[in-house]
User: Fold 4-coumarate--CoA ligase from Panicum virgatum.
Amino acid sequence: MSSYCFGPTSYSFVEFQTQVSTLICDSKQLKKLPAISSKLQSLRHIIYIEDEPVDAETLNQMNLWTTLSFTEVEELGRTSHIDARLPSSSDTAVIMYTSGSTGLPKGVMITHGNMVATTAAVMTIVPNLGMDDVYLAYLPLAHVFELAAETVMLASGTSIGYGSALTMTDTSNKIKKGTKGDVSVLKPTLMISVPAILDRIRDAVFKKVGEKGGLTKKLFDFAYNRNLAAIEGSWFGSWAPERMIWDNIIFKPIRAMLGGRVRFVLCGGAPLSSDTQRFMNICLGVPVGQGYGLTETCAGAAFSEWDDTSVGRVGPPLPCCYVKLVSWEEGGYTISDSPMPRGEVVVGGYSITKGYYNNDAKTNEVYKVDEKSMRWFYTGDIGQFHPDGCLEIIDRKKDIVKLQHGEYVSLGKVESALTTSNYVDSIMVYADPFHNYCVALVVPSHQALEKWAQDSGINYKDFEELCQNDQAIKEVQQSLSKAAKAARLEKFEIPAKILLLPEPWTPESGLVTAALKLKREQIKTKFKDDLNKLHH
Assistant:
C-alpha cells in the first residue's frame, strides 16, 4: 500500500496508520529518514528521485531498508514482464492525506471511480482541451487539486512540463540570474494556481508599475480601467481594436511573465479575491476559472465555466456530482435567506470518496447516506446559490467565532479583506469568546515595510528589529484599518492589536499548507504566548 503525504513531519503518523511498505521521496527528504527510523516500523522499501547527489554516507544509513534510485527502478521495469492487474472502480487508488489545517491529517480513501468521475467531468468544461495544449505542473502532487489536474491532462493527451513555485518565472528565488524560469522555457497554454500565487503576481506588477511612475503608470491605469469597464459591461464602444492596441503596448510584457501563451487559468484551493481575478482577466487577457472541491470530493464539486465573466463565484456543480445547501441556524445561514439561499455546502455523487482510512468516527460525522442511497459529504463551508445556479463560497463554519457580546466574526472573511494591504504577506486573525475584539498576527512584506522605513528615516539593525518598532506597527495597523474600511468591515472585526512577525510562513515551517492556507491550530500553538499578550 502506498499513500500521499504532505511532509516529513507527517511520515511517522501516516506510516503508523496505513502500514505503508514503500516510500518514494526526493534526495532532500531521504537524508531526513534515518533520524525517524525507529518510528517507521512497517517500511521495507525506499525509492529516491535523484534531483541532487546523494552521498555514500547517507546511503549507508539506509541499511534498514531496500533503497533504490528511481533510475534503478526504471531499469527493473524494462526487464520485468509481469501482466498488469487492472482495478475495479470501487478499489482504493490513493490514500491522500488532508493538509491538517485543522488538526492531525486524515487519510482520504480515493477510489479509481472517483478519479475517473472528476476527470471526465472537468474534460467537459475546459474548451478544446487536447494534444495542442501544454500544462505547467508546479504544485505538489500530494495535493488533490494537482493530482486531479494532471490526471485530466494525461487523459486528454496534453503535454506536461514539471517545474516548481520557486523556479516558475525568470525572477524566481531559485533561478540563477541570467537564466530562464519554467514558464519562459515551457510557454504553457494551461495553468492552475492557488490564490496566494496569483496575488503575488498581481502585487509584483502593481509594484513595478508604481516604481516606474509618470507616463507609464498613467497609461497602465487608463488601459486597465478601459478594459475593466468593457469586461464589466459599462462600456462597449469599438472595444476590440482599442484592446489590441493596449494589449500590445501595455499588457504584452505582463503576459510574457507567464510565457505569453496561457489561454486558461484555473484557480482553486482557497477563495480568490475579485480584484485579483479581474487583474488576471485584464493583464493576461484570458478566462480565470474558479474551482471548488476538497480532498473528500476528489477535487470535484463546482467549476466556473470558461466564458463566465463574473467574479467571486465557483460556478455550477460539475457533471459528476450534486451540490445542495443545508441550513446552519446557529451561524445565521438558512436556505430561506433572501435574496439568495445560504447554508452549509453538501456535495453528493460519483466524486464522493469512501471516507477516512481507519477513522470511522470522523467518517460517520461528515459522510451521510440518504434514503435514496446517495452518499453526501458535509464540507463545513458556507455557500450561497445565485439565481443562475452558480455557487459562491462565503464563509467556513470553523472560521466563525462568537465574541463576548454575541457578535460573530468570520476570520476568513476578515483575513481576505486585510490581505489587500500592501504591507501584508501573511495574516491570521484571532478571536475568542472571552473578549469583545479580535487581534492579528502579521507577517509583513519585507520590501514594502523596508521601503516605508527608508522613506520615513527609521533606523534599524535588521528586519526583526523593524518588526518591533512602534512606528512600524502603527503604520501597518493604519493600513489594515484602511483595508477594513474599504471592505466595510464592522468595528469589532478590525484587529485592535497586532504583532509583526519577521519570519515567513511556509509549508516547510508547518504553519501553512501546500496550497498556502493557514494551519490555524499550529499557528495558535506556536504563538500562544504572543496571542495571550495581545489580549492583555
Remarks:
- The radius of gyration is 24 Å.
